[in-house]
Amino acid sequence: MGIFFSKKKPPSRVTEHDKAVLQLKQQRDKLRQYQKRIELSLGKDKDIAKKLLNNGQRDRAKLLLKKKRYQEQLLSKLDVQLDNLDKMASDIEFAQLETQVVSGLKAGNEALKQINDSLKIEDIERILDETREGIDKQNEINELLSGQLTDEDEAAVEEELAGMIEQEMPSVPSEEPKVEVNEEESEDEEEVADKEKPKQKEKRKEERVAVMA
């Protein structure tokens, strides 16, 4: 024999208010259907009454008109009942919304209360004091760093600046550099010049002969 495990059904999300609204709307729909049938019947009864009157059946026509009159009064009552049903359904739905709003406010108040309970006045005052101390200390440091220099500090800065300028500037020589001349190179240049002189004289002589010719 097998063992059967029955699963538990999840809880229904439909509340009693939802069921009440659904029943009201169903009743309203039924009344509207009945209202449409009466309206159709009124049109037919009027046509039949005209035919009976034309056929000389006055009593039957009058009886049919009485029925028509009764149904018209019934339609008026149905309109009132339909309005009441619509109003009641709307009131229930609005009450549900109000309940949800109240539940939300309640949850919000509980959360806010827990937050306020976690924040103690002593802790807040301590944090504010520490913050003020930190700001005051930072202000003191800023004042020290941004304060004016004394005369000694100014003199030390000028001296350091002058030393840096002196290091950066190139040194200027006091005398012009002497150019050393190699004696052997000088003698070679003189020999070349002596050899070139006869050649230049011979060239000039040839130029004069050519001009005379």
Quick structural summary:
This protein is mainly alpha-helical and 213 residues long. It is built from five helices and no strands.
Which helices and strands occur, and which strands form pairs?
Layout: H1 16-54, H2 58-118, H3 121-145, H4 151-168, H5 183-212
Helix pairs in contact: 1-2
Describe what this molecule looks like in 3D:
The chain is mainly alpha-helical and 213 residues long. Among the domains are: 16-92; 121-167. Helices cover 81% and strands 0% of the residues. The chain has five helices and no strands. The longest helix is centred in the middle third of the chain and has 61 residues, at 58-118. The radius of gyration is 62 Å and the shape is elongated.
